[in-house]
Amino acid sequence: MPVIKYSNVDISIDSKVILEDVSFTLNTGEFAYIIGPVGSGKSTLLKTLYGEVDIADGKAVVMDEYDMSRIGNRKLQKLRRNIGIVFQDFQLLTDRSIYDNLDFVLRCTGWKDKQQRKERIQEVLDLVGLPQKGYKRPHELSGGEQQRIVIARAILNRPTLLLADEPTGNLDYETGMHIMNLLHRISQEENMAVLMITHNEQWLKEYPGTTYRCKDMKMTLIEQNNNTI
Questions:
Q1: What are phi and psi of 67, to 5 degrees?
Q2: Do residue 153 and residue 166 come from a single domain?
Q3: What are 52-57's contacts with CB under 8 Å, separation 24+?
Q4: 87 within domain boundaries
Q5: pLDDT tens digits for range 178-218
Q6: pLDDT digits (tens, 9 = 90+) for 54-102
Q7: How many CB atoms are closer than 10 A to CB 5?
């Protein structure tokens, strides 16, 4: 089932065209990359998927239900609960523990039962390989561990779609490789669609996926992962 289906989409900010005539589909469980030079519209495209940047023209449907060209605020909030986002900058709350960082997200997204929140937090910590780190604060973790926590935070609500904007950009190669392993494993085990921006084209060789390039206001398919068709 298509998680994203864009057809002839134009994206503009303050009347400036960022991307035009974008057409692509991302299916359930598919792992896809967006590459391209700085300023080519990659991050802006991701922002249209959770309603931070408007669609100027064309048909943009997410999860077969949300028309991003005319989505209202109530439906937008519902959509955002079904999207996980991983940034290059960790954006963890530094004044509280990892457990409290994760608990804060669950409480903000409607989890009322304390025991259920506790169990879900332990599940995601186990999934990202940090089962004993809940009591620590972000500054007590390595960069790779912090990024694992960011991924744990992103999947707390079992999203249908995970967006990752340069998730390995601030990490060394070996740590980045562990993060790539984790993202691919989550995509496969959780049947989650993943759309990832990267400048490291080595990942495309080591972890193959559908690949798009943004350049000169266009987004083009350069490699299709046949396993997802």
A1: -85, 105
A2: no
A3: 53/11, 53/13, 55/9, 55/10, 55/11, 56/9, 56/10, 56/11, 56/12, 56/17, 57/8, 57/9, 57/10
A4: no
A5: 999 999 999 999 999 999 999 999 999 999 999 999 999 99
A6: 999 999 999 999 999 999 999 998 999 899 999 877 789 999 999 999 9
A7: 18
Domain boundary among 141, 158, 175: 158
Q: DSSP class of residue 119?
A: H
Classify 146 as helix, strand or coil: helix
Asked if residues 41 and 214 have their Cβ atoms less than 8 Å apart, the reply is yes
Strands 31-35 vs 210-215: parallel, antiparallel or unpaired: parallel
Specify the pTM.
Answer: 0.92
**How far, in whole angstroms, is CA 1 from its chain's centroid?**
18
Domain total of the chain: 2
